[in-house]
């Protein structure tokens, strides 16, 4: 075990408070489990690794302040963050100017890697690629023909609605209209009533876990009946916990991680993650945010080890050459520093998410 040595300190910016804190705290849980694993195995370059986690609240201004604090005051050589696409986009010029690598664990807006910022690496989905992967399934296999889209009014919601609209047009389906709601919205009844009286056979949702859970409950209260598909890998496990099994039954989810379906060869490590998670949350399944926080630390530790020293530029060069097999799939960054994770579509059946299509292994 790495002991009695000066730790290697990296930074992380996550929403610890605010409307999406439930997700940010899951990422942090994964980060902590991975830190324990790395340190139990002797650390990195013979030193323990530790992380300073700042609260970005999922907000662009707060996240930029957190990133600047980590770079200026804490002098971290690398950062994991910033959860929300708008927060990550705001932080990107800061890491570039200060030449500190940023590893993006959950933000999906295409613009993040399309900008080709050499200091930014992403190993989560890109909305356009997600759209292309869903293309063969939503209309052809699941039969979604006329869609009402309900999205959160931010970069993530708008880019996802845009990608899905293009994909539906291409495959013979149609997005009839898109309704946007603020991240703080709690009463979806007016929007749902409009959707109910439309010709839609399917409702597609892109919003937070709490948002999805509230929509499902209000959908049930209105006695609505139609297909529901949740994009952008909102963890089914957490939605079922909040909305209840009855309101979640039959709902389709696009997943980047399903706790009880590990990549081939990762079953043992996956089991250990579940056991470690159970120590804090008995009987609950870790969701994809836990897995992405966990893999982020291991990808960073691997890069620091290959860099041979704790120096931002060398860590960046090492990240470019990453070839890492994690719980979220294989991580190899392309020319835009993007790596697409393993993705699937699941449906809630008898209260549990069951994978119905594996889109990318």
Itemize the secondary structure elements and their pairings.
Blueprint lengths: L7 E7 L6 H20 L8 E7 L4 H13 L6 E2 L4 H14 L3 E3 L6 H4 L5 E3 L4 H8 L11 E7 L2 H16 L3 E8 L7 H8 L5 E5 L2 H13 L5 E4 L5 H8 L1 H4 L3 E4 L11 H14 L7 H20 L4 H9 L3 E3 L2 E3 L11 E7 L2 E9 L1
Helix pairs in contact: 1-12, 2-3, 5-6, 8-9, 12-13
Overview of this protein structure:
The protein is of the alpha/beta class and 361 residues long. It is built from 13 helices and 14 strands. The strands form three sheets. Strands 7-6-8-9-10-13-14 form a seven-stranded mixed sheet. The chain has a five-stranded parallel sheet with strand order 2-1-3-4-5, sandwiched between helices. A two-stranded antiparallel sheet has the order 11-12. Helix 1 packs across helix 12. It is globular.
Specify the biggest β-sheet. 7 strands, mixed
- Strand line-up across the major sheet: 7-6-8-9-10-13-14
Number of strands: 14
Quick one: overall form?
globular
Calculate the terminal CA-CA distance, rounded to whole Å.
34 Å
SSE order, as H and E? Answer: EHEHEHEHEHEHEHEHEHHEHHHEEEE
Instruction: State the helix count.
Output: 13
Helix content: 40-55%
Instruction: Please give the radius of gyration in angstroms.
Output: 20 Å
SS content category: alpha/beta
Average residue-wise pLDDT = 94
Strand content: 15-25%
Name the poorly predicted regions: none
